[in-house]
């Protein structure tokens, strides 16, 4: 309930950034890091591998290589943190990181070993650099190979010439997508493939009886994507090209869901011949609309010259109707004015050989969005390609993530309808570009909120997603199932029966577009934070996280804009600079008694590097929560106790006794974990989603666990290969924090308002209307 019996409103509070407080970053701690191998052991292991790579490099004819060689070096999982990056060794070898691949390895400690995620660094190396590496490995430690350079060897357990994954090459296809590695410029920065190397690639394909389709060469980041026609059986020969990263069959556009034959008369035209003005424009790219009608008074813009297709028009009207009006049911008359949506017809694409329509559609989408007129984009289409565990770069995902960052756009993407396909082959996973890190992916639930019970619709594609967006889909929304189909709006106000994530996504698009009309200011970060924060958690969410993401969304966020007497929702919007540590007072009133639940949701956008499968996001915003400002961890003197750490109130007698006995308190109050308990290694942090651009967690706190709690926000940037970088200089982010009084005292909201006057009620905006033109 958002109101008391007297009808008093308790709006969500804004200006959380006004709760900033000064904090100091703790000094780096000591402790010995376990090394699973010595540098000398690594030298013995690597020497024959580098010798083999050198022989293979010398055997490469000039037609199969660029000016510099592409070499891969596999890191042990113990050394994937930025602080362990082997920069001294790479500098000595003139080896420049230009990307990475996802890989698995053995993470070892003193007592155990287990499989864990790691990566293969993709390095641009001169011939002289590879010669030097071989020479140094043969010599061992000495004057030319000393100190930090030699010690960096222990981070590696494999070195080889770069080559594309072989599993892709075994498939039968005539049209392929080839992805080529970056080169490096004179300053040593990765840069797209040179024209000279691209010509070598074209000549190689021509010599095999194929063709590189010059009209379909695209660059994103440092990568070059090319469309290639090849005769049967020649893919393996093409893979010998050293700058080639991936060669895979070209994916086509996803098939659109089918529709039921029964039509249901339901609607009359909107009663008000106007729509909200000064609102963000939503773009829907789909099959277009069948003319201008009272329900779609602005019609659609044709970006394709092909004649319209009846099935595509039905899909476009259904998607466009859900984006404009939300989930409409028979009897919902009169309809409210549609929210401002620009409908673009991109299907069917012009007749292009093979499956190149995907390139054409993406070009049209990019062209419109670069004009900067749209803040929210609905995509219920994309390539028929599930995200793969190796997370090799994809043109759609990389292009749209870059557009989202450059133009401050929120993409709402249908997760795909292959959730019931073969999980052993990975065909059940979310489909490109639903794996993007700067958007929201929407799966389908079998019932709309607030109906219970609910779960994932069987066809709805599942996670996990790529690094930086492992929690996929982001959320569920009703998409229809057999016996409870989605009522798909037609341009004439009739309905058809349908089911698919194609229709769940625009219901979310509508809810977010409507949300922007209810709050005084917004950003894609704020909207994504609302999605994660107010999604209804499934009762078995942790078990089903790859099915439901953060949970099922409401049909609108209107009820979430008010608080009950026992809760307070606070919105923070701020910017964190590189290497900065920001502290915020968590709005828990000092007068509150009883146990509490705190929910914290973070959303930020990140620049991306498509060449980095494991470091795809270049920015990581980290959170730390210190619930009690007098609770410290005390470390025992060396060899004095079997108990290494104890956590105590620093003011207590026990703490005084420990300090007298030589125990050392920590520099800052203890933190409470935000998320899955226990990750301590970089591999675990990555595997358990600590690098997500959206995160949401709930924490239970007993009364005696809370005193002047604070949240800390920090930002770490990356560059190629995982080493630290100096850009971008700052990252905007949004936080939502909710505090809930489990004792139901009925006073928490008022106490928070009294103690934190800097927090101001978020006023609902009354949207202005203007006549249609």
Commentary on this structure:
The chain is flat. It has 773 residues and is an alpha+beta fold. The strands form ten sheets. It has a seven-stranded parallel β-sheet with strand order 16-17-15-18-19-20-21, sandwiched between helices. It folds into four domains: 13-26 and 563-629 and 669-761, Jelly Rolls; 39-162, no CATH class; 167-249, Alpha-Beta Plaits; 263-561, Rossmann fold. Helix 8 (310-325) runs parallel beside helix 11 (501-516). The chain is 21% helix and 27% strand.
CATH superfamily of the largest domain: Peptidase S8/S53 domain
| Range of helix content | 10-25%
Low-confidence stretches: 1-5, 676-689, 767-773
Main sheet makeup: 7 strands, parallel
Count of distinct strands: 35
Lateral arrangement of strands in the main beta sheet: 16-17-15-18-19-20-21
Mean pLDDT: 89
Q: Could you tell me the CATH topology label of the largest domain.
A: Rossmann fold
| Count of the domains | 4
Proportion of residues in β-strands: 25-35%
* The first-level CATH class name of the largest domain: Alpha Beta
Secondary-structure map:
Elements: E1 13-14, E2 20-21, H1 39-59, E3 69-75, H2 87-92, E4 95-108, E5 113-125, H3 127-139, H4 147-151, E6 156-161, H5 166-169, E7 175-180, E8 183-184, E9 190-191, H6 195-207, E10 211-220, E11 223-229, H7 235-238, E12 244-249, E13 259-265, E14 274-276, E15 281-286, E16 300-302, H8 310-325, E17 341-345, H9 357-369, E18 374-379, H10 395-407, E19 410-414, E20 439-445, E21 475-478, E22 486-489, E23 494-498, H11 501-516, H12 524-534, H13 545-548, E24 567-577, E25 581-585, E26 596-604, E27 619-626, E28 631-635, E29 645-649, H14 653-660, E30 664-665, H15 682-687, E31 694-701, E32 710-717, E33 730-741, H16 748-755, E34 760-761, E35 769-771
Parallel strand pairs: 15-17, 15-18, 16-17, 18-19, 19-20, 20-21
Antiparallel strand pairs: 1-34, 2-25, 3-5, 3-6, 4-5, 7-11, 7-12, 8-9, 10-11, 13-23, 14-35, 22-23, 24-33, 25-32, 26-31, 26-33, 27-32, 28-29, 28-30
Helix pairs in contact: 1-3, 8-11, 9-10
């Amino acid at each position: 309930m958002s109101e008391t019996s007297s009808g008093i409103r308790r709006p969500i509070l804004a200006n959380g950034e006004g709760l900033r407080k000064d904090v100091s970053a703790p000094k780096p701690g000591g402790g010995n890091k376990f090394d699973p191998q010595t540098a000398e052991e690594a030298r013995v292991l690597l020497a024959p591998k580098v010798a083999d790579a050198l022989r293979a490099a010398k055997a490469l004819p000039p037609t199969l290589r660029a000016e510099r060689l592409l070499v891969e070096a596999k890191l042990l999982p113990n050394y994937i943190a930025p602080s362990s990056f082997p920069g001294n060794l790479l500098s000595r070898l003139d080896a420049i990181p230009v990307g990475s691949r996802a890989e698995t390895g053995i993470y070892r400690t003193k007592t155990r070993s287990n499989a864990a995620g790691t990566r293969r660094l993709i390095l641009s190396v001169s011939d002289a650099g590879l010669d030097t590496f071989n020479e140094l490995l043969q010599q061992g430690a000495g004057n030319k190979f000393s100190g930090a350079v030699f010690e960096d060897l222990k981070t590696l357990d494999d070195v080889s010439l770069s080559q594309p994954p072989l599993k892709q090459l075994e498939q039968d296809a005539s049209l392929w997508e080839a992805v080529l590695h970056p080169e490096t410029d004179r300053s040593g920065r990765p840069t797209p493939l040179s024209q000279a190397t691209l010509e070598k690639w074209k000549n190689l394909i021509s010599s095999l009886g194929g063709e590189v389709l010059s009209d379909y060469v695209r660059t994103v980041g440092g990568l070059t994507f090319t469309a290639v026609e090849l005769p049967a059986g020649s893919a393996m020969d093409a893979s010998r090209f050293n700058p080639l990263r991936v060669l895979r069959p070209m994916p086509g556009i996803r098939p659109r869901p089918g529709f039921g034959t029964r039509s249901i008369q339901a609607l009359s035209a909107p009663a008000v011949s106007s729509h909200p003005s000064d609102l963000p424009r939503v773009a829907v790219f789909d099959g277009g609309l069948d003319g201008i009608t009272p329900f779609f008074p602005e019609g659609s813009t044709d970006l394709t010259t092909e004649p319209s297709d009846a099935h595509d028009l039905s899909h476009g009207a259904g998607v466009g109707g859900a984006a404009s009006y939300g989930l409409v049911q028979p009897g919902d008359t009169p309809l409210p004015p549609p929210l401002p949506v620009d409908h673009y017809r991109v299907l069917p694409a012009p007749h292009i050989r093979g499956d190149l329509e995907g390139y054409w559609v993406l070009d049209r989408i990019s062209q419109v969005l670069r004009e900067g007129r749209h803040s929210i984009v609905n995509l219920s289409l994309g390539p028929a390609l599930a995200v793969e565990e190796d997370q090799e770069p994809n043109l759609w995902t990389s292009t749209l993530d870059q557009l989202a960052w450059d133009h401050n756009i929120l993409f709402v993407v249908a997760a795909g309808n292959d959730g019931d396909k073969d999980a052993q082959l990975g065909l059940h996973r979310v489909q490109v570009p639903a794996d993007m890190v700067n958007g929201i992916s929407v799966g389908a639930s079998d019932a709309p909120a607030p109906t219970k019970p609910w779960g994932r619709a069987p066809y709805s594609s599942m996670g996990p997603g790529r690094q930086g967006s492992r929690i996929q889909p982001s959320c569920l929304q009703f998409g229809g199932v057999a016996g409870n189909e989605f009522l798909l709006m037609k341009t004439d106000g009739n309905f058809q029966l349908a089911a698919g994530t194609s229709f769940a996504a625009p219901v979310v698009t509508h809810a977010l577009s409507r949300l922007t009309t209810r709050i005084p200011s917004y950003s894609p970060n704020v909207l994504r934070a609302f999605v994660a924060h107010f999604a209804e958690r499934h009762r078995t969410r942790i078990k089903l996280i790859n099915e439901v993401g953060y949970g099922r969304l409401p049909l609108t966020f209107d009820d979430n804009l008010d608080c009950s007497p026992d809760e307070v929702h606070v919105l923070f919007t701020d910017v964190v600079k590189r290497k900065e540590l920001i502290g915020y007072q968590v709005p828990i009133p000092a007068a509150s008694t009883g146990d509490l639940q705190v929910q914290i949701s973070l959303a930020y956008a990140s620049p991306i590097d498509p060449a980095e499968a494991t470091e795809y996001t270049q920015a990581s915003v980290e959170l730390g929560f210190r619930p009690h400002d007098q609770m410290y961890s005390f470390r025992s003197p060396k060899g004095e106790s079997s108990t290494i750490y104890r956590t105590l109130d620093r003011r207590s007698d026990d703490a005084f006794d420990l300090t007298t006995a030589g125990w050392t308190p920590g520099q800052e109050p203890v933190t409470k974990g935000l998320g899955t308990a226990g990750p301590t290694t970089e591999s675990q942090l990555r595997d358990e989603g600590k690098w997500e651009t959206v995160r949401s967690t709930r924490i239970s706190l007993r009364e005696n666990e809370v005193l002047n709690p604070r949240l800390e926000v920090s930002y770490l940037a990356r560059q190629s290969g995982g080493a630290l970088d100096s850009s971008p200089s700052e990252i905007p982010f949004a936080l939502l924090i909710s505090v809930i009084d489990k004792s139901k005292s009925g006073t928490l909201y008022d106490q928070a308002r009294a103690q934190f006057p800097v927090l101001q009620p978020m006023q609902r905006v009354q949207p202005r209307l203007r006549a249609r033109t």
